[in-house]
Specification:
The structure holds 2 protein chains of 2 kinds.
Chain A lengths: L5 E5 L4 H35 L8 H69 L4 H22 L1 H19 L6 H6 L12 H16 L7 E10 L15 H10 L6 E8 L5 E7 L15 H9 L3 H9 L3 H11 L1 H13 L6 E7 L1 H10 L2 H6 L1 E8 L13 E7 L18 E6 L9 H9 L1 H14 L10 H14 L5 E11 L54
Parallel strand pairs in A: 4-5, 5-6, 6-7, 7-8
Antiparallel strand pairs in A: 1-8, 2-9, 3-4, 3-9
Helix pairs in contact in A: 1-2, 2-3, 2-4, 3-4, 6-8, 6-9, 7-15, 8-12, 9-10
Chain B lengths: L16 H30 L6 H47 L1
Helix pairs in contact in B: 1-2
Classes of the chains: A alpha/beta, B mainly alpha.
């Protein structure tokens, strides 16, 4: 990996949108071909009508008949070729996506074979309980994995690790190649499962947390903190018209200022309309379950929501209705956001923009995929950074912009690339990949909200007319123009801040485990980031971290 | 055009062969205009905004068909002129026969 650039997938310049446009054009060709047919038929009729004149002036009648026949043949040729072209577009469309799927499946199966072999080798090394062989094999495989991640990026390596994990495990325990893959993977990966493996993993982890008592569905303790003019608390960062992608991500960074908060920007335009911008931060406490709503339980629960209660029921054997209730309770962040929106006074006909970083992006995507939420609010945009949201069925009227980085591990936890859809643009950065830094620092930098704010600014630039020749301009321009159209001017911006804590969790005495994101601070707000000095768990502290004010006593 | 309002042409002109040839000339000119309209409508199909090799090929092919249709329209205008010549020739014969 080298070079600092943006790769844009999906949106108005994306492959899917392009093929959709070609299909529409093919339908136009069908229509044009249909319009030619009556003309050719009338030419034949005119030949019959002119027949009686043949005897009166044979030479001119012959010349006229010849001219008409030549024109008819040209029209017939054009009609047939238009129909052939329209058919070719349809056939090419199907062939392209079939070939794309086939290629993806074959690449996945090849990687799975390698993983099965690697798992088998580790199994052989473990069998004689020879420490030297075990250490050597583990070391070699870890080294190989790191080299692979350096080559394809840590996001791609994470996706691959998730997807080949069944076959690796199969090799390790001596199962035949392909056995676990065929049971755990979906059809596009050569399996028969109905749900993506990454979502099943999230559901299993959640279920394991509940079964072992490490996590509890919890109860939201909701508080309104403040409602103040934008910029009053953070200097000039949020004063100007918030209608760029950079403004969206700056708001999310601002939401990290204090723990356990969600911020809602109430924008009153000069035209008298209101637009609401919801900024959701990511994981702030790396305990399995804690007083913070932004803990691991919330992140995993949010990711599991992508497969819905029915999918989770199939994965765990539990009752669908019970799981629906459990999933609702598991995502206290979604409850926090919805209570905050209701308290702030968001009306059904006012535009809503959802923004989130990391797990905050998961929660934002879960809301933008919830039919009940979409029926209640006019969600027009979803902006996420470093969030694994590929499997969320986001509403088709919601314009999605997902920012990712090739080395951002959390982005890869869905085990899949984001869909290439007309309303969904994914912008992946390679910034910093040519710098020689240790893997932990590289991964940390890639996920940093400050870096994503910078990337958002690059997307804004890419959307400018001056960048028309650059790849990805069409998608970026379509999104940035739509965003600017929603907030063309600003009369007033008020920031509403709400805090949510989990009033019920298994071990209230558990010390808060600070969140990772990582590297040197890139801004004056957001998580305080500390680069690890040695290998080992990353540690990152939040500014002015303090215990939540209202925490229920731990259950006995 | 483009299928939503397909052109319909029916019926004869109920007159002498010379009159019918004259009327046919006018209709052939109208048909040429219809074909030009179809060629114009292909412009919408060629306006696919997609930066890809597939779209480039598609736009080229549609452009070829537009050229082909404009050629057919031109042939029809030539046929209309020939129809006029034919009508005059037939009229001459009709007048000569009437004079007899």
């Amino acid at each position: 990996m080298s070079g600092d650039q943006l790769h844009v997938r999906g949106g108005h310049g994306g492959t899917r949108f392009g093929w959709d446009q070609l299909l529409l054009a093919a339908a136009l060709l069908d229509g044009s071909a249909g319009d030619i047919h009556p003309v050719t038929r009338r030419i034949v009729e005119l030949g019959v009508i002119l027949g009686p004149g043949a005897a009166l002036s044979p030479p001119t009648h012959y010349a006229l008949s010849t001219d008409l026949e030549d024109a008819r043949r040209s029209l017939m040729a054009a009609m047939v070729e238009l129909q052939i072209l329209a058919d070719l577009v349809r056939i090419s469309h199907e062939t392209y996506f079939a070939a794309d799927s086939y290629l993806d499946e074959q690449v996945h199966l090849a990687k799975s074979q390698v993983a099965h072999s690697a798992g088998g080798h580790l199994g052989l090394a473990l069998a004689p309980l020879n420490p030297l062989a075990m250490a050597g094999t583990v070391g070699l495989q870890a080294g190989g994995g790191l080299l692979y991640a350096e080559a394809v990026g840590y996001r791609g390596a994470t996706e691959d690790a998730i997807n080949v994990s069944p076959e690796y495990a199969g090799g390790l325990i001596g199962l035949p190649p392909g056995m676990l893959n065929s049971r755990l993977q979906t059809a596009d990966k050569g399996g028969s499962a109905e749900r993506p493996l990454a979502l099943s993993y999230a559901t299993w982890v959640r279920a394991a947390g509940t079964l072992t008592g490490m996590t509890d569905s919890g109860r939201l303790d909701f508080r309104h903190v403040s409602s103040i003019p934008a910029g009053a608390d953070t200097g000039s960062a949020l004063r100007r018209t918030p209608n760029t992608v950079s403004d969206m991500m700056s708001g999310v960074r601002n939401a990290y200022t204090a723990p356990d908060e969600v911020k809602i920007r109430e924008v009153e335009t000069m035209e008298g309309r209101k637009v609401w911008i919801v900024d959701i931060p990511g994981t702030q406490d790396w305990s399995p379950d804690s007083a913070s709503v932004y803990d691991v339980e919330g992140a995993v629960g949010g990711l599991a929501l992508a497969e819905g209660p029915a999918g989770a029921a199939a994965d765990t054997g539990q009752d669908t209705a019970a799981l629906a209730e459990e999933q609702r309770q598991a995502t206290l962040v979604m409850e926090l956001v919805q209570q905050a929106m209701a308290d702030a006074g968001v009306a059904a006909d006012e535009a809503v923009i959802l923004n989130g970083h990391s797990a905050g992006g998961i929660h934002a995507a879960a809301l933008a995929s919830d039919p009940a939420f979409l029926a209640r609010y006019d969600v027009q945009f979803l902006h996420v950074a470093g969030a694994p949201i590929a499997h969320f069925d986001v509403g088709s009227n919601v314009k999605v912009l997902a920012l990712e980085h090739v080395d951002d591990v959390p982005s890869g936890l869905d085990g899949a690339a984001n869909p290439d859809l007309p309303n969904w643009t994914t912008v992946t950065s390679t910034a910093g990949t040519n710098e020689l830094v240790d893997p932990a620092a590289r991964v940390g930098q890639a996920h940093d909200i400050g870096r994503y704010v910078e990337q958002a600014g690059q997307v804004d630039q890419l959307g400018q007319p001056s960048a028309a020749a650059q790849p990805g301009h069409i998608s970026a321009a379509a999104h940035t123009a739509a965003l600017a159209a929603v907030i063309p001017s600003v009369a007033k911006v008020t920031v509403h801040t709400y805090r949510g804590t989990d009033a019920v969790y298994p071990r209230a005495d558990r010390r808060r485990v600070p969140a990772p994101p990582l590297t040197a601070p890139t801004s004056t707000v957001g998580p305080r980031i500390v680069a690890p000095r040695t290998a080992g768990p990353l540690r990152v502290g939040l500014p002015r971290l303090q215990a939540p004010p209202s925490v229920a006593p731990p259950p006995s | 055009m483009t299928g939503s309002g397909s052109p319909h042409f029916t019926g004869g002109f109920c007159g002498t062969p010379g009159y019918e040839a004259e009327q046919a000339g006018g209709e052939i000119t109208a048909l040429a205009g219809t074909v030009d309209g179809i060629a114009d409508s292909l412009g919408a199909a060629a306006a696919v905004e997609w930066d890809s090799a597939a779209a480039d090929i598609f736009r080229d092919r549609v452009g070829d068909r537009q050229t082909q249709l404009r050629g057919a329209a031109s042939q029809l205008r030539g046929a209309a002129a020939t129809a006029q010549t034919h009508a005059e020739a037939v009229h001459s014969v009709e007048l000569a026969e009437g004079g007899l």
